[in-house]
């Protein structure tokens, strides 16, 4: 029990700096021959309260369908155009004039992504990237759109030379000074932000023996200590993002905001694609949304809530090449049925029975119908891990179980865990998954009576 107090102390310092939640958007990819029309897709976005969308081009039909929807849009200049854009300011001006200006402001375009994962492009476009961004920015300035529309580019995690532990994060040596530094300076000068595509699935799939699924899926877990920083990580996504933060920090760009421009988990894969299944996809996406929309969505290095996350992807895309997983990242089938149950707004469902691993709230917003309590048969050791998770990463309000506070007595791990689990459960929307804690908790429909504590 001695360790418990120390742990709580550290955790409270994290909780006290949290602010309101981040943004959830989705990537609307269209590498498929069976998708609904752009107008139907926009209806689907609206029906699901999805407020931000990113597309992989500047398709006019899509931008027209989004007009007047209120949805905030990131458009993309495809990689094939980077060389021309970098070498010809007049081409850049034309591209913006033709592909962006006509749609704004009716279509709320707010970022132009210049290229996508450019450092992985087989044709080596590296030297064109920053000049293309600069020319696109100049075009926006000419059209007086630069205040409303930012320029950025999504970088892939392989931009990092080193990412483990996060505090050792650095950019690839061939990119750090020549590309990343001028890019970060450009982003800073223009008040923009860095876009990062991050897939814990790839790391898990490749190292399933070393990385726990709990850690990859935001489940309660014992955490991974970064001995370089002394910070403990409870999710692989946090560790990946903080590695980028540390890499920027090494170049003296500590302050640069990040948007997670792609992340997701496939609902199906080939036999050798470990972890690609519907259950894991539902948990990854559901837990991530809960987390981003709650007030605990910062990373250990940046505890202020700064997680803007664009889920990949809206639809399964049947014409993507590569392993089966590539065609199965969608949250929706082309017929608009959900691949798994997921909600994009907290507190907006009236049906909690259909939930498995997502963030569905209880019916009619009645916050006092069900409670989450610890299962004593799980044993103290497992309960303690889950308790630390709930009060730390989970963001449960654990003040009442501090020494001297109302729910400190009875001073047992089981009682404290029940309090913390319930706090987490109530706070994160009462989705069935949010009362699991690695199988150490269950939902009850009678208010628990433990000591003098009020739940
Ligand atoms: C890509 O091009 C740059 C110069 O344009 C060069 O320095 C770099 O070595 C090239 N990278 C690869 C992988 O060929
Ligand atoms: C709530 O339930 C009713 C049927 O009971 C259904 O028609 C309605 O669409 C549901 N609303 C939401 C937001 O799920
Ligand atoms: C809730 O969801 C379940 C499973 O999807 C479904 O069978 C049931 O009809 C839904 N109930 C309401 C009231 O919508
Ligand atoms: C939800 O979870 C329960 C218990 O784990 C399982 O029996 C059920 O089949 C799941 N439902 C769906 C739709 O995945
Ligand atoms: C909410 O739950 C409380 C306690 O179970 C109950 O008394 C009340 O009637 C519920 N309210 C609604 C609107 O269902
Ligand atoms: C925040 C938000 O847009 N909420 C809306 C989500 O969708 C429901 C209908 O399904 C609306 O009633 C909410 O206003």
Automatic annotation (TrEMBL):
Residues 1-21 form the signal peptide. It holds the Pfam family Glyco_hydro_17. It is found in: Cell membrane. SMART domains: X8. It comes from the Eukaryota. It is a lipid-anchor; GPI-anchor. GO terms for molecular function: glucan endo-1,3-beta-D-glucosidase activity. Its EC number is 3.2.1.39. GO terms for biological process: carbohydrate metabolic process; defense response. SUPFAM superfamilies: (Trans)glycosidases (SSF51445). Keywords: Cell membrane, Disulfide bond, Glycoprotein, Glycosidase, GPI-anchor, Hydrolase, Lipoprotein, Membrane, Plant defense, Signal. One of its GO terms (cellular component) is side of membrane. It catalyses: Hydrolysis of (1->3)-beta-D-glucosidic linkages in (1->3)-beta-D-glucans. Residues 370-455 form the X8 domain. Belongs to the glycosyl hydrolase 17 family. This is glucan endo-1,3-beta-D-glucosidase.
């Amino acid at each position: 029990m001695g360790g418990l107090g120390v742990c709580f102390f550290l955790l409270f310092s994290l909780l006290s700096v949290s602010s309101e939640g981040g943004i959830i958007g989705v990537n609307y990819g269209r590498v498929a021959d069976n998708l609904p029309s752009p107008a139907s897709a926009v209806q689907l976005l609206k029906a699901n309260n999805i407020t931000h969308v990113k597309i992989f081009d500047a398709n006019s039909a899509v931008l027209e369908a989004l007009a007047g929807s209120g949805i905030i849009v990131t458009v993309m200049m495809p990689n094939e155009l980077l060389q021309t854009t970098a070498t010809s300011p007049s081409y850049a001006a034309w591209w913006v004039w033709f592909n962006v200006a006509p749609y704004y402001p009716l279509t709320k375009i707010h970022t132009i992504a210049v290229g996508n994962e450019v450092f992985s492009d087989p044709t080596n476009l590296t030297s064109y990237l920053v000049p293309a961004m600069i020319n696109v920015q100049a075009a926006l300035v000419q059209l007086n759109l630069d205040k409303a529309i930012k320029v950025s580019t999504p970088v892939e995690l392989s931009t990092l030379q080193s990412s483990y532990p996060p505090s050792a994060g650095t950019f690839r040596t061939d990119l750090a000074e020549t590309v990343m530094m001028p890019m970060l300076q450009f982003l800073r000068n223009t008040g923009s932000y860095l876009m990062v595509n991050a897939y814990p699935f790839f790391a898990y799939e490749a190292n399933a023996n070393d990385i726990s699924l709990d850690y990859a899926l935001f489940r309660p877990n014992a955490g991974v200590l970064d001995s370089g920083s002394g910070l403990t990580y409870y999710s692989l996504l946090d560790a990946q993002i903080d590695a980028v933060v540390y890499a920027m920090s090494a170049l003296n760009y500590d302050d640069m905001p990040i948007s997670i421009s792609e992340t997701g988990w496939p609902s199906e894969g080939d036999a050798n694609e470990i972890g690609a299944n519907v259950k894991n996809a539902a948990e990854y996406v559901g837990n991530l949304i809960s987390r981003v929309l709650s007030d605990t969505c910062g990373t250990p290095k940046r505890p202020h809530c700064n997680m803007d996350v664009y889920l990949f992807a809206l639809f399964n895309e049947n014409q993507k090449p590569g392993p089966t997983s590539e065609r199965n990242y969608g949250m929706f089938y082309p017929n608009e049925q959900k691949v798994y149950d997921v909600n994009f707004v907290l507190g907006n469902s009236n049906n909690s029975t259909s939930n498995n691993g997502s963030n569905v709230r209880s019916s009619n917003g009645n916050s006092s119908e069900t409670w989450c309590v610890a299962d004593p048969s799980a044993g103290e050791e497992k309960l303690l891990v889950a308790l630390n998770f709930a009060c730390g990463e989970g963001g449960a309000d654990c003040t009442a179980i501090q020494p001297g506070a109302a729910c400190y007595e009875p001073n047992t791990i089981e009682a404290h865990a029940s309090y913390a689990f319930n706090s987490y459960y109530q706070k994160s929307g009462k989705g069935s998954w949010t009362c699991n804690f690695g199988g150490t908790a269950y939902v009850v429909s009678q208010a628990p009576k433990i000591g003098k504590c009020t739940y």
